[in-house]
Write a structure and sequence with these properties.
It is built from twelve helices and six strands. α9 links the parallel β2 and β3. By secondary structure, it is an alpha/beta fold. The protein folds into two domains: 224 residues, Cation efflux protein transmembrane domain (Alpha-lytic protease prodomain-like, Up-down Bundle), CATH 1.20.1510; 174 residues, 2-Layer Sandwich (Alpha-Beta Plaits). It is 62% helix and 13% strand.
Length: 408
Amino acid sequence: MCMIKYLLNRWIFDKNFASLSEKRKYAGYCEGFFSISINLLMFALKFIFGLTLHSHALIADAFHSLSDCSSSLVAIIGLKASNKPPDKEHPFGHGRVEFICTLIISGFLLLVGYEILKSSFHGFFAKDSHPISMGIYFFVFLTILANEFLARISFTLSAITGSRVFDVEGHHHRSDALSSILVLLSLFLKQFGLDIIDPFIGAGLSLWIMWIAFSSAKKSISPLIGEAPCEKDLDKIVETIASIPQIYNVHDIIYHNYGNTLLLSIHIELSEKLTFVESHDICEKVEKNVSEILHATVVVHSDPVNPENPIYQILKEEISMILKNDKEILSFYGLRIIEYKNKKSEAIFNIYLREKDSQRNQEIKQNFLKKLQKKHPSIHFSIHVSPPWAYVSKRSIDEIRKDITPSS
Protein backbone atom coordinates (compact mmCIF):
# COMPACT_ATOMS: atom_id res chain seq x y z
CA MET A 1 0.00 0.00 0.00
CA CYS A 2 2.86 2.42 0.81
CA MET A 3 4.45 1.69 -2.59
CA ILE A 4 1.13 2.36 -4.36
CA LYS A 5 0.73 5.63 -2.45
CA TYR A 6 4.29 6.64 -3.40
CA LEU A 7 3.69 5.90 -7.08
CA LEU A 8 0.35 7.74 -7.13
CA ASN A 9 1.95 10.78 -5.51
CA ARG A 10 4.77 10.59 -8.07
CA TRP A 11 2.55 10.16 -11.13
CA ILE A 12 -0.55 12.14 -10.15
CA PHE A 13 -0.42 14.29 -7.01
CA ASP A 14 3.00 15.88 -7.48
CA LYS A 15 1.42 17.88 -10.30
CA ASN A 16 0.08 21.37 -9.61
CA PHE A 17 -3.71 21.60 -9.61
CA ALA A 18 -5.86 24.72 -9.41
CA SER A 19 -8.22 23.09 -6.88
CA LEU A 20 -9.05 19.87 -5.03
CA SER A 21 -11.83 19.17 -7.57
CA GLU A 22 -9.29 19.31 -10.42
CA LYS A 23 -7.09 16.85 -8.53
CA ARG A 24 -10.06 14.50 -8.07
CA LYS A 25 -10.99 14.73 -11.75
CA TYR A 26 -7.46 13.94 -12.91
CA ALA A 27 -7.17 11.06 -10.42
CA GLY A 28 -10.54 9.73 -11.62
CA TYR A 29 -9.41 9.76 -15.23
CA CYS A 30 -6.19 7.91 -14.37
CA GLU A 31 -7.93 5.28 -12.21
CA GLY A 32 -10.78 4.82 -14.67
CA PHE A 33 -8.67 4.43 -17.79
CA PHE A 34 -6.20 2.18 -15.97
CA SER A 35 -9.04 -0.02 -14.69
CA ILE A 36 -10.67 -0.20 -18.13
CA SER A 37 -7.34 -1.07 -19.77
CA ILE A 38 -6.63 -3.92 -17.33
CA ASN A 39 -10.17 -5.31 -17.58
CA LEU A 40 -10.07 -5.19 -21.40
CA LEU A 41 -6.75 -7.03 -21.34
CA MET A 42 -8.15 -9.61 -18.91
CA PHE A 43 -11.22 -10.01 -21.13
CA ALA A 44 -9.11 -10.67 -24.22
CA LEU A 45 -6.80 -13.18 -22.48
CA LYS A 46 -9.61 -15.05 -20.71
CA PHE A 47 -11.76 -15.21 -23.85
CA ILE A 48 -8.93 -16.46 -26.09
CA PHE A 49 -7.74 -19.08 -23.62
CA GLY A 50 -11.31 -19.99 -22.71
CA LEU A 51 -11.93 -20.91 -26.34
CA THR A 52 -8.60 -22.71 -26.53
CA LEU A 53 -9.19 -24.72 -23.33
CA HIS A 54 -12.94 -25.21 -24.05
CA SER A 55 -13.74 -23.68 -20.64
CA HIS A 56 -17.22 -22.23 -20.29
CA ALA A 57 -16.31 -20.85 -16.83
CA LEU A 58 -13.33 -18.93 -18.19
CA ILE A 59 -15.39 -17.50 -21.09
CA ALA A 60 -18.11 -16.41 -18.62
CA ASP A 61 -15.49 -14.79 -16.38
CA ALA A 62 -14.10 -13.00 -19.46
CA PHE A 63 -17.42 -11.24 -20.02
CA HIS A 64 -17.57 -10.47 -16.29
CA SER A 65 -14.26 -8.57 -16.69
CA LEU A 66 -15.75 -6.75 -19.69
CA SER A 67 -18.80 -5.71 -17.66
CA ASP A 68 -16.51 -4.28 -14.95
CA CYS A 69 -15.49 -1.58 -17.40
CA SER A 70 -18.97 -0.06 -17.03
CA SER A 71 -18.48 1.00 -13.40
CA SER A 72 -15.10 2.58 -14.24
CA LEU A 73 -16.75 4.40 -17.14
CA VAL A 74 -19.43 5.70 -14.77
CA ALA A 75 -16.68 6.94 -12.41
CA ILE A 76 -14.94 8.82 -15.24
CA ILE A 77 -18.16 10.41 -16.51
CA GLY A 78 -19.27 11.26 -12.97
CA LEU A 79 -16.04 12.95 -11.92
CA LYS A 80 -16.00 14.91 -15.18
CA ALA A 81 -19.62 16.03 -14.77
CA SER A 82 -19.15 16.94 -11.09
CA ASN A 83 -16.39 19.37 -12.07
CA LYS A 84 -18.55 21.35 -14.50
CA PRO A 85 -18.65 25.02 -13.43
CA PRO A 86 -21.84 26.52 -11.95
CA ASP A 87 -24.51 27.61 -14.40
CA LYS A 88 -27.85 29.42 -14.26
CA GLU A 89 -29.80 26.30 -13.25
CA HIS A 90 -27.12 25.02 -10.83
CA PRO A 91 -25.52 28.03 -9.10
CA PHE A 92 -23.74 25.83 -6.53
CA GLY A 93 -22.06 23.69 -9.20
CA HIS A 94 -22.49 20.00 -10.06
CA GLY A 95 -20.48 18.40 -7.25
CA ARG A 96 -23.34 16.16 -6.10
CA VAL A 97 -23.17 14.27 -9.40
CA GLU A 98 -20.30 12.39 -7.72
CA PHE A 99 -22.74 11.06 -5.08
CA ILE A 100 -25.14 9.94 -7.82
CA CYS A 101 -22.31 8.06 -9.55
CA THR A 102 -21.38 6.40 -6.27
CA LEU A 103 -25.01 5.28 -6.00
CA ILE A 104 -24.90 3.81 -9.54
CA ILE A 105 -21.64 1.95 -8.87
CA SER A 106 -23.21 0.62 -5.64
CA GLY A 107 -25.95 -0.77 -7.87
CA PHE A 108 -23.32 -2.58 -9.97
CA LEU A 109 -21.82 -3.98 -6.76
CA LEU A 110 -25.25 -5.16 -5.59
CA LEU A 111 -25.71 -6.90 -8.95
CA VAL A 112 -22.36 -8.69 -8.52
CA GLY A 113 -23.49 -9.94 -5.09
CA TYR A 114 -26.82 -11.11 -6.53
CA GLU A 115 -25.14 -12.99 -9.39
CA ILE A 116 -22.81 -14.79 -6.95
CA LEU A 117 -25.81 -15.68 -4.73
CA LYS A 118 -27.74 -17.02 -7.74
CA SER A 119 -24.72 -19.01 -8.90
CA SER A 120 -24.29 -20.42 -5.38
CA PHE A 121 -27.95 -21.47 -5.26
CA HIS A 122 -27.61 -23.35 -8.54
CA GLY A 123 -24.45 -24.92 -7.17
CA PHE A 124 -26.55 -26.91 -4.67
CA PHE A 125 -28.10 -28.85 -7.57
CA ALA A 126 -25.61 -28.68 -10.44
CA LYS A 127 -22.63 -30.99 -10.70
CA ASP A 128 -19.75 -30.02 -12.98
CA SER A 129 -17.88 -33.04 -14.31
CA HIS A 130 -15.67 -31.19 -16.80
CA PRO A 131 -11.93 -31.76 -16.34
CA ILE A 132 -10.05 -28.83 -14.81
CA SER A 133 -7.09 -27.42 -16.74
CA MET A 134 -4.06 -25.77 -15.12
CA GLY A 135 -4.66 -22.86 -17.49
CA ILE A 136 -7.89 -22.09 -15.63
CA TYR A 137 -6.03 -22.01 -12.31
CA PHE A 138 -3.49 -19.63 -13.81
CA PHE A 139 -6.02 -17.14 -15.15
CA VAL A 140 -8.16 -17.19 -12.03
CA PHE A 141 -5.03 -16.42 -9.98
CA LEU A 142 -4.10 -13.65 -12.44
CA THR A 143 -7.58 -12.16 -12.05
CA ILE A 144 -7.19 -12.09 -8.26
CA LEU A 145 -3.90 -10.18 -8.48
CA ALA A 146 -5.23 -7.71 -11.05
CA ASN A 147 -8.44 -6.91 -9.15
CA GLU A 148 -6.70 -6.58 -5.79
CA PHE A 149 -4.16 -4.23 -7.37
CA LEU A 150 -7.01 -2.08 -8.76
CA ALA A 151 -8.76 -2.16 -5.38
CA ARG A 152 -5.67 -0.88 -3.58
CA ILE A 153 -5.25 1.92 -6.10
CA SER A 154 -8.90 2.97 -5.61
CA PHE A 155 -8.73 2.85 -1.79
CA THR A 156 -5.50 4.88 -1.81
CA LEU A 157 -7.05 7.50 -4.11
CA SER A 158 -10.09 7.64 -1.81
CA ALA A 159 -7.86 8.25 1.23
CA ILE A 160 -5.90 10.99 -0.57
CA THR A 161 -8.80 12.85 -2.25
CA GLY A 162 -11.69 12.01 0.12
CA SER A 163 -13.82 10.94 -2.86
CA ARG A 164 -16.50 8.32 -2.16
CA VAL A 165 -16.47 7.26 -5.82
CA PHE A 166 -12.99 5.77 -5.39
CA ASP A 167 -14.04 4.05 -2.15
CA VAL A 168 -16.98 2.21 -3.71
CA GLU A 169 -14.88 1.45 -6.82
CA GLY A 170 -12.32 -0.14 -4.50
CA HIS A 171 -14.99 -2.33 -2.94
CA HIS A 172 -16.16 -3.31 -6.44
CA HIS A 173 -12.66 -4.42 -7.48
CA ARG A 174 -12.13 -6.24 -4.18
CA SER A 175 -15.43 -8.07 -4.51
CA ASP A 176 -14.25 -9.31 -7.92
CA ALA A 177 -10.99 -10.47 -6.35
CA LEU A 178 -12.89 -12.29 -3.59
CA SER A 179 -15.25 -13.93 -6.09
CA SER A 180 -12.20 -15.15 -8.03
CA ILE A 181 -10.73 -16.53 -4.79
CA LEU A 182 -14.02 -18.35 -4.34
CA VAL A 183 -13.68 -19.84 -7.84
CA LEU A 184 -10.12 -20.93 -7.07
CA LEU A 185 -11.20 -22.51 -3.77
CA SER A 186 -14.11 -24.21 -5.49
CA LEU A 187 -11.83 -25.72 -8.13
CA PHE A 188 -9.50 -26.97 -5.41
CA LEU A 189 -12.31 -28.54 -3.34
CA LYS A 190 -13.69 -30.31 -6.38
CA GLN A 191 -10.46 -32.27 -6.61
CA PHE A 192 -11.38 -33.88 -3.27
CA GLY A 193 -15.11 -34.28 -3.93
CA LEU A 194 -16.09 -31.44 -1.55
CA ASP A 195 -18.37 -29.62 -4.01
CA ILE A 196 -21.08 -29.11 -1.36
CA ILE A 197 -18.95 -26.56 0.56
CA ASP A 198 -18.67 -24.23 -2.44
CA PRO A 199 -22.30 -22.94 -2.46
CA PHE A 200 -22.17 -22.07 1.24
CA ILE A 201 -18.98 -20.04 0.79
CA GLY A 202 -20.47 -18.33 -2.25
CA ALA A 203 -23.68 -17.44 -0.41
CA GLY A 204 -21.73 -15.93 2.50
CA LEU A 205 -19.54 -13.92 0.15
CA SER A 206 -22.52 -12.64 -1.84
CA LEU A 207 -24.30 -11.44 1.30
CA TRP A 208 -21.13 -9.61 2.40
CA ILE A 209 -20.81 -7.92 -1.03
CA MET A 210 -24.48 -6.87 -0.98
CA TRP A 211 -24.01 -5.42 2.51
CA ILE A 212 -21.05 -3.36 1.24
CA ALA A 213 -23.22 -2.19 -1.69
CA PHE A 214 -26.07 -1.24 0.64
CA SER A 215 -23.72 0.66 2.98
CA SER A 216 -22.11 2.53 0.07
CA ALA A 217 -25.52 3.44 -1.36
CA LYS A 218 -26.65 4.71 2.04
CA LYS A 219 -23.54 6.91 2.30
CA SER A 220 -24.32 8.33 -1.15
CA ILE A 221 -27.99 9.04 -0.47
CA SER A 222 -27.29 10.88 2.80
CA PRO A 223 -25.38 13.87 1.29
CA LEU A 224 -27.90 14.08 -1.56
CA ILE A 225 -30.66 14.63 0.99
CA GLY A 226 -28.45 16.88 3.13
CA GLU A 227 -26.44 15.47 6.03
CA ALA A 228 -25.10 16.91 9.26
CA PRO A 229 -21.45 18.01 9.46
CA CYS A 230 -19.03 15.62 11.11
CA GLU A 231 -17.75 16.49 14.59
CA LYS A 232 -14.21 16.69 13.20
CA ASP A 233 -15.13 19.60 10.90
CA LEU A 234 -17.00 21.39 13.70
CA ASP A 235 -13.92 21.08 15.92
CA LYS A 236 -11.70 22.44 13.14
CA ILE A 237 -13.95 25.47 12.81
CA VAL A 238 -13.94 26.23 16.54
CA GLU A 239 -10.20 25.56 16.88
CA THR A 240 -9.51 28.01 14.06
CA ILE A 241 -11.75 30.68 15.58
CA ALA A 242 -10.32 30.11 19.09
CA SER A 243 -7.03 31.66 17.93
CA ILE A 244 -8.75 35.07 17.76
CA PRO A 245 -8.90 36.37 21.37
CA GLN A 246 -11.69 38.94 20.82
CA ILE A 247 -14.23 36.17 20.12
CA TYR A 248 -16.17 34.94 23.15
CA ASN A 249 -18.02 32.05 21.52
CA VAL A 250 -19.07 30.46 18.23
CA HIS A 251 -22.43 28.91 17.39
CA ASP A 252 -25.18 28.41 14.77
CA ILE A 253 -22.84 26.75 12.29
CA ILE A 254 -24.83 26.03 9.11
CA TYR A 255 -23.17 23.53 6.78
CA HIS A 256 -24.12 22.99 3.10
CA ASN A 257 -22.11 20.40 1.17
CA TYR A 258 -22.62 20.48 -2.60
CA GLY A 259 -19.79 18.06 -3.37
CA ASN A 260 -17.11 20.37 -4.74
CA THR A 261 -18.66 23.43 -3.08
CA LEU A 262 -18.93 23.80 0.70
CA LEU A 263 -20.91 26.74 2.10
CA LEU A 264 -20.67 27.72 5.77
CA SER A 265 -22.55 30.25 7.85
CA ILE A 266 -21.10 30.96 11.30
CA HIS A 267 -22.18 33.17 14.22
CA ILE A 268 -19.51 34.58 16.53
CA GLU A 269 -19.91 36.55 19.78
CA LEU A 270 -18.09 39.88 20.08
CA SER A 271 -18.17 42.61 22.68
CA GLU A 272 -20.83 45.24 22.06
CA LYS A 273 -18.16 47.87 22.82
CA LEU A 274 -16.33 47.13 19.57
CA THR A 275 -16.97 49.50 16.69
CA PHE A 276 -18.76 48.34 13.57
CA VAL A 277 -15.49 48.43 11.61
CA GLU A 278 -13.64 46.40 14.27
CA SER A 279 -16.37 43.75 14.30
CA HIS A 280 -16.37 43.63 10.50
CA ASP A 281 -12.60 43.14 10.37
CA ILE A 282 -12.79 40.23 12.84
CA CYS A 283 -15.59 38.62 10.80
CA GLU A 284 -13.49 38.88 7.65
CA LYS A 285 -10.51 37.33 9.44
CA VAL A 286 -12.66 34.37 10.54
CA GLU A 287 -13.98 33.95 6.98
CA LYS A 288 -10.45 33.88 5.59
CA ASN A 289 -9.03 31.48 8.22
CA VAL A 290 -11.90 28.96 8.10
CA SER A 291 -12.08 29.00 4.29
CA GLU A 292 -8.38 28.10 4.11
CA ILE A 293 -8.82 25.17 6.51
CA LEU A 294 -11.98 23.64 4.99
CA HIS A 295 -11.76 25.01 1.41
CA ALA A 296 -15.19 26.54 1.87
CA THR A 297 -17.10 29.72 1.14
CA VAL A 298 -17.73 31.23 4.58
CA VAL A 299 -20.14 33.92 5.77
CA VAL A 300 -19.77 35.16 9.36
CA HIS A 301 -22.35 37.03 11.43
CA SER A 302 -21.42 38.78 14.69
CA ASP A 303 -23.66 38.77 17.78
CA PRO A 304 -23.03 41.55 20.35
CA VAL A 305 -22.55 40.42 23.97
CA ASN A 306 -21.68 42.34 27.14
CA PRO A 307 -19.54 40.18 29.45
CA GLU A 308 -18.52 43.33 31.35
CA ASN A 309 -22.01 43.48 32.85
CA PRO A 310 -21.95 42.02 36.43
CA ILE A 311 -25.25 40.18 35.84
CA TYR A 312 -23.69 38.48 32.80
CA GLN A 313 -21.07 36.60 34.79
CA ILE A 314 -23.54 35.57 37.49
CA LEU A 315 -26.02 34.17 34.95
CA LYS A 316 -23.32 32.52 32.88
CA GLU A 317 -22.07 30.56 35.89
CA GLU A 318 -25.56 29.60 37.06
CA ILE A 319 -26.72 28.50 33.60
CA SER A 320 -23.55 26.42 33.25
CA MET A 321 -24.23 24.75 36.61
CA ILE A 322 -27.83 23.92 35.62
CA LEU A 323 -26.71 22.43 32.28
CA LYS A 324 -24.18 20.14 33.97
CA ASN A 325 -27.09 18.11 35.34
CA ASP A 326 -29.37 18.59 32.32
CA LYS A 327 -29.59 15.63 29.95
CA GLU A 328 -31.59 17.45 27.26
CA ILE A 329 -29.75 20.75 26.74
CA LEU A 330 -26.21 20.56 25.34
CA SER A 331 -25.15 24.21 25.64
CA PHE A 332 -26.20 27.86 25.57
CA TYR A 333 -24.80 30.84 23.70
CA GLY A 334 -25.38 34.49 22.75
CA LEU A 335 -26.05 35.62 26.34
CA ARG A 336 -26.77 39.34 26.39
CA ILE A 337 -28.04 41.51 29.23
CA ILE A 338 -30.29 44.49 28.48
CA GLU A 339 -30.96 46.98 31.30
CA TYR A 340 -33.98 49.25 30.90
CA LYS A 341 -34.63 52.70 32.38
CA ASN A 342 -37.17 51.25 34.82
CA LYS A 343 -34.26 49.31 36.35
CA LYS A 344 -35.57 46.01 35.02
CA SER A 345 -33.24 43.62 33.19
CA GLU A 346 -33.71 41.17 30.36
CA ALA A 347 -31.42 38.22 29.60
CA ILE A 348 -31.48 36.98 26.00
CA PHE A 349 -29.78 33.77 24.88
CA ASN A 350 -30.19 30.60 22.84
CA ILE A 351 -30.06 26.97 23.91
CA TYR A 352 -28.89 24.03 21.86
CA LEU A 353 -30.68 20.70 22.44
CA ARG A 354 -28.99 17.30 22.42
CA GLU A 355 -31.83 15.72 20.44
CA LYS A 356 -33.52 17.41 17.48
CA ASP A 357 -37.10 16.83 18.66
CA SER A 358 -39.14 19.90 17.72
CA GLN A 359 -42.27 18.54 19.45
CA ARG A 360 -40.60 18.86 22.87
CA ASN A 361 -38.82 22.18 22.28
CA GLN A 362 -41.34 24.26 24.21
CA GLU A 363 -41.55 21.77 27.08
CA ILE A 364 -37.76 21.69 27.53
CA LYS A 365 -37.51 25.47 27.28
CA GLN A 366 -40.27 26.04 29.86
CA ASN A 367 -38.71 23.62 32.35
CA PHE A 368 -35.38 25.38 31.98
CA LEU A 369 -37.03 28.80 32.25
CA LYS A 370 -38.72 27.88 35.54
CA LYS A 371 -35.37 26.99 37.12
CA LEU A 372 -33.92 30.39 36.17
CA GLN A 373 -36.97 32.43 37.17
CA LYS A 374 -36.99 30.74 40.56
CA LYS A 375 -33.50 32.11 41.25
CA HIS A 376 -33.94 35.48 39.49
CA PRO A 377 -37.59 36.54 39.59
CA SER A 378 -36.72 40.17 38.76
CA ILE A 379 -35.07 39.28 35.44
CA HIS A 380 -37.07 38.67 32.29
CA PHE A 381 -35.64 35.77 30.27
CA SER A 382 -35.97 35.46 26.49
CA ILE A 383 -34.80 31.98 25.53
CA HIS A 384 -34.69 30.74 21.94
CA VAL A 385 -34.16 27.14 20.85
CA SER A 386 -31.65 26.75 18.04
CA PRO A 387 -33.04 25.28 14.77
CA PRO A 388 -32.16 21.64 13.95
CA TRP A 389 -29.92 22.66 11.03
CA ALA A 390 -27.70 24.94 13.15
CA TYR A 391 -24.78 23.23 14.90
CA VAL A 392 -22.25 23.83 17.66
CA SER A 393 -19.14 21.89 18.57
CA LYS A 394 -19.38 19.65 21.62
CA ARG A 395 -16.19 21.34 22.83
CA SER A 396 -16.59 24.98 23.86
CA ILE A 397 -14.19 27.66 22.72
CA ASP A 398 -12.93 28.02 26.32
CA GLU A 399 -12.12 24.28 26.51
CA ILE A 400 -10.22 24.43 23.23
CA ARG A 401 -8.26 27.50 24.37
CA LYS A 402 -7.23 25.67 27.54
CA ASP A 403 -5.94 22.78 25.44
CA ILE A 404 -3.88 24.94 23.09
CA THR A 405 -2.55 27.28 25.76
CA PRO A 406 0.69 25.88 27.30
CA SER A 407 0.49 25.47 31.05
CA SER A 408 2.89 27.65 33.04
